[in-house]
Specification:
It is built from no helices and 40 strands. By secondary structure, the protein is mostly beta strands.
Length: 414
């Protein structure tokens, strides 16, 4: 779709330049404002819209309507992992001409190979095993995770080696569906050709109402083309990038719904979410945590936030595109904050907006929510005392300030 360009300009008395004495804060967002609202407080930042600019920071197929192919006419199989792998109630075949067959890698781990178009439902527990899709380039696959735990300590636990790929953003020939009410666990490693615990050479699409927990010694989820997330709760903890789409200038990560916890802070060098093309967030709840000199959300061609709740921390501030349709707070601190530092944001009326506690070193954060109003003055404080309930990733959206922190911004007319 054509994304309407909306640039929120930082303004003080109509001058579109801001010098922060101690830090820089940038806001982009939706909501058409026709007049210059001006700064209302010398210690705050005000944001206004300049609609319909002619910049080209957009991409096709970003309207949140995924068009993944189905596999209703293919094989329908249930795979039960355990001491013995069962397929449709019988012992798995070792015949490579079968739709599902068992083999052994050169490193000694077992491989459950899926070779034909269809829907494959996997449950049960297996160690030292890889589920590998080796279908034809015209074969569409639905992989239903129905309460399974798979670990592989020398390669990806799930590897999509080959299958159909439409090569279109927001579209995929391989769907990973998380069965409702289930929790699925992937503990994987990497190989010479694939860096992630769940790795795909083709585009991937996640949907469903279940949960997926991934632990990785390098990257968590990797695709070589596009990635779409429509549903489910994905929790990824990795030593490098938690989520990565790595085709330079091509890949598009689209998040339309679900909940994504992308924690790349397990090691010393990882982004939360990293796209070598675009990152487009249309809905859902998205967390991105980074380690090293990295960003919670990172993209080479632009990060566009049109909806949902987004929270990310890191050292590098990769920025958010001005074409975003939802208001975004993107903030850089004057110095790096240590772990377990309290930060909170108030609006011009002194009402709470958001608070968080740093889980690791960071010097930037990004926050976006449908509740943020463009044109509002936001003030950022470090330290002080906060009363409220913080979630597992340090975020709190309902709180009271019981002891004032240090205001991080002041503004000067230029």
């Amino acid at each position: 779709m054509d994304i309407t360009k909306k640039i929120i300009a930082l303004t003080i008395s109509g001058i579109l330049v801001l010098l922060a004495a101690t830090a820089a804060i940038f806001l982009y967002g939706g909501g058409d404002l026709t007049g210059d609202q001006g700064a209302t407080d010398d210690d705050g930042i005000n944001a206004i819209d300049t609609a319909n600019d002619d910049s080209t920071d957009s991409t096709d197929d970003t309207d949140g309507t995924a068009a993944a192919h189905s596999s209703e006419d293919g094989v329908n199989a249930t795979i039960e992992l355990g001491t013995e792998v069962m397929v449709n109630g019988s012992t798995i075949s070792t015949d490579p001409s079968s739709a599902v067959y068992l083999s052994t890698s050169s490193l000694g781990y077992s491989m459950v190979n899926i070779a034909m178009a269809g829907t494959y439902t996997i449950s049960g527990t297996a160690e030292d095993l890889q589920v590998r899709i080796v279908a034809g380039t015209g074969d569409e696959i639905v992989l239903v995770l129905n309460g399974t735990s798979i670990s592989c300590d020398s390669a990806p636990a799930i590897l999509v080696q080959s299958a159909f790929d439409p090569l279109e953003a927001n579209n995929s020939g391989v769907i990973i569906r998380l069965a409702e009410g289930t929790t699925n666990v992937i503990d994987g490693s990497h190989s010479d050709d694939n860096d992630a615990a769940l790795s795909s050479n083709v585009s991937l699409l996640f949907d469903g109402d279940g949960a997926l927990e991934i632990t990785a010694d390098m990257e968590g989820i990797e695709t070589f083309v596009h990635l779409t997330i429509n549903g489910g709760t994905l929790t990824i903890t990795s030593d490098e990038d938690a989520i990565n789409a790595n085709e330079d200038g091509v890949s598009i990560i689209t998040i339309n719904g679900g909940t994504v916890y992308a924690d790349g802070s397990g090691g010393t060098d990882g982004d939360g979410i990293d796209s070598n093309g675009y990152l487009i967030i249309n809905g859902g709840v998205v967390y991105g945590l980074a380690s090293g000199e990295n960003s919670g959300i990172d993209s080479d061609l632009g990060t566009i936030i049109n909806g949902g709740t987004v929270f990310a921390t890191g050292i590098m501030n990769d920025g958010v595109s001005a074409s975003s349709e939802q208001t975004v707070i993107s903030f850089s601190f004057p110095s790096t904050l240590s772990e377990d530092t309290s930060v909170y944001v108030l609006d011009s009326s002194g009402d709470p907006v958001v608070a968080f506690r740093t889980l690791n070193r960071c010097s930037t954060f990004v926050y976006s929510s449908p509740e943020l109003v463009s044109g509002t003055v936001f003030k950022v404080y470090v330290g002080g005392s906060i009363s409220g309930t913080f979630d597992d990733y340090g975020l709190c959206t309902s709180f009271t300030v019981t002891g004032s922190g240090t205001l991080q911004t002041s503004s000067t007319r230029m």
